[in-house]
Each structure stands twice: as C-alpha cells, then as structure tokens.
Design goal:
The protein has seven helices and ten strands. By secondary structure, the protein is α+β, with helices and mostly antiparallel strands. Strand 7 and strand 8 form a beta hairpin. The longest helix has 17 residues.
Length: about 250
C-alpha cells in the first residue's frame, strides 16, 4: 500500500516505559496489537517511535522559555509514541480507544498497564505539505525514520496561529533538505488542541537543516515566529523528536 491523502486522522499515544518487561511489551505491540488494529475497517497504518531526551528551551535569544502543560492537566509520559493513521476520526469512535482497550483480555490489559503516564489524542488533518525529500518515502512504511511532533494549546489569537502556519511555517518546510513532509493537525479528543507533525529522513538531517534555520536565514520572520511560539503551552516532552522503532501499513 502506498500512503495517500486518505489518512486524515491520527490517534496518538505518548507514554513512558520501564526497562523491565520492555522486550515482551514490544513483541506484543508489534506482533499482536498493531496487526489487529490494521484489521479494523478504516485503519491504514501504525508507527511506533522512541523520543529523544527532552530539551527544554531556556535560551535568552528566544526571549522566553518553553512552557509545558501542568502536571495535573495531562499525564506526563513522552518517551515513546504510537501513532495510528485512519481514514477519518470516526474510525476511532466506535469503539473509542478506551472502549477498545477495556474489551481486551486480561493478559493484554496487563501489557497496556506497562505504559506509564500515558496520554492520548485523536487528531484530524488541517493541512499538509510535501518536503523536498518526499520521494524518499518507501512503500510499506508508515511515516518517516524521524519525526518531530509538537502538540500544544495556544494562549493567543488562533486566527494569527492559522495565518502563521499557512503563510509561513508550512511553506518554509517545502525548502528544507531532509524534510519529507509536514502535517498540521487539530484535535477532536485529548488535552492538546493542536499538533504539528514533521517527517525527516533522519534525526541528523533534522538537526542539521531545521534547527535554527529561521534565525539564521529568515530573520525577517523571526519576530512573528517568536510571538507565536511564545503563546504555546506544550504537551510533556513536546516537541518530541523521535526515531522510528516499528511501522506497518494495511496490506
């Protein structure tokens, strides 16, 4: 199967995981849980990622530190992410993720119990663009080897946020080497109201070509970007830079 624009909804789960029992959990997730998800009508793919260590921005140049969700507002897990793509959000409505998990056998609910501080969102696609390396996407691969997933609520004027993504952030990503594509998402359930999903060919390509690009090459957009990002309240660990562990698509 070749991924197309038919995958309009993504169910995202962030969580931590202890070392003990991790191998057994991975085997169950990849060999049993995900294949059964793909058997569901409308589910198109699943991708499992390990996040890099969180980097909390406190640099003076930025003019503000990153702000994160309060610990009493959302579970704080972020070291692993499971993303499941579907045709639309109603694929995750009957059953809902909670109903689906509640109906699993006790042994499988025990596996799910290994997830620590798990948080979840169901998102729908607002917009997407291809990057210069879109052609590197391989058939049978769900999302790219590296992603950066930002998820957040916004304190400011959301019309300005809408304009910033449409007029600057998304168009700028079409010029960044190593970028495979970007999707702007909005939530239908979960704490975060917005998300931005970047795909890169590798963590190295992301670090070399994306980080600080705006500051160095587009200073005219810097004030606008700093005003927008200064009004963001991030999910725990966000933006999560992560490496793909496993992926599968519907045959």
């Amino acid at each position: 199967m070749t991924l197309t624009a038919t995958d309009k909804a993504i169910w995202i789960t962030w969580y931590d995981l202890a070392e003990e029992g991790r191998d057994a959990y991975f085997t169950w997730l990849h060999d049993s849980y995900i294949p059964r998800l793909l058997d569901r009508r409308g589910v198109l793919w699943a991708a499992h990622y390990a996040s890099e260590e969180r980097q909390i921005r406190t640099d003076k140049k930025a003019g503000h530190p990153r702000r994160y969700a309060p610990t009493d507002a959302v579970p704080q897990g972020y070291r692993f992410m499971l993303l499941v793509g579907a045709e639309d959000a109603h694929v995750f409505a009957d059953p809902t993720p909670s109903e689906l998990h509640g109906g699993l056998p006790a042994a499988e609910r025990e596996m799910l119990g290994l997830r620590l501080s798990a948080a979840t969102n169901v998102m729908i696609e607002q917009a997407r663009v291809d990057g210069p390396d879109a052609a590197t996407r391989q058939d049978g691969m769900a999302l790219s080897p590296c992603i950066q997933l930002g998820s957040f609520v916004f304190d400011g004027d959301e019309q300005e946020l809408l304009a910033w993504y449409a007029q600057w952030r998304l168009p700028s990503m079409t010029e960044i080497p190593g970028c495979v594509g970007v999707r702007k998402l909005v939530s239908v359930s979960g704490w975060a109201k917005h998300a931005i999903l970047h795909e890169f060919t590798s963590v190295g390509a992301r670090n070399q070509n994306f980080v600080n690009r705006e500051r160095e090459k587009n200073p005219d957009k810097l004030e606008w970007s700093e005003r927008i990002t200064g009004q963001v309240v991030h999910s725990p660990g966000a933006p999560n830079v992560a490496t793909r562990i496993f992926c599968a698509v519907k045959p």
